[in-house]
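#lab-general

N.A. 3:47 PM
ok so I finally got the sequence cleaned up, no stray characters, all 202 residues accounted for. can someone with queue access submit it? mine expired

B.Y. 3:52 PM
send it over

N.A. 3:53 PM
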Amino acid sequence: MKLLGALLVALSLLLPGAWASEATRTCIFQTLSESDHEFCRGDLEVIYPEVGDVSCSYIPKCHGYRQKLSEEWKQPRVRFPWAKKNKKYVLVMVDPDAPNRENPRLRFWRHWLVTDIQGSDLRVGKIKGKVLTEYSRPKPARYSGYHRYQFRLYRQSQHQTISLSSEEQQSLGTWDLKDFVEDFHLGHPVAATQFLTKNCKD
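B.Y. 4:20 PM
back already:
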C-alpha cells in the first residue's frame, strides 16, 4: 500500500493535469487561419466576459464558452483605441455564413447595428449611440459548421443621419450590406475583425 501511495504521489507531481477538472484545465484560443485572418485589421477589440478579447480567434468549446456566447453573454465591449475623439462611427456586426458557409443564401445576417458612436466612447469600449438593430447573440444551427461573426467599423459624417428602410427593419437576413454602405457613403471600414464559432452541441 505504501508503494502504491508513493507511486500516486509521484504521478501527481509528474502529471499535474492528469486529474484536472474542467474548471482548472487550460483552454486555448486558436488564431484564425491565414485566409480568415486577413479580414482582421485596425486593432479592433471585441471583449466578452471571462475570455477578454476574442478578435481574430476561434471560440473554443471548453468551459462552456460557446454555450455562454449563444445563451448568456450580453453584447460585448467593442474598443477601438485609434478612434478620433470628436468623430462619430457606425458599428456593424454580421454573419456572412447564414445558414452555412457552403451555401450562405441568407448573407448577411445582421446581428447588431449602432450609429452615432462617439469616438471618445469607442476608445474605452463603450458602445453608446443610436441602436438600429439590437444585439443578437451568435447562434449557429447544429451541423452548420463554423460561422464567421464580423465586426466592421465605419466613420460617420458629423451631421449624417443613418437609418434602415422599413423592409430592412422587418428582416435580419439577406441584408444588402454593400448597398447600405453605398447609400450612406460610409466607404471602407476603418477597422474590422471577426471570430469563428459553431453550435455548442457540435
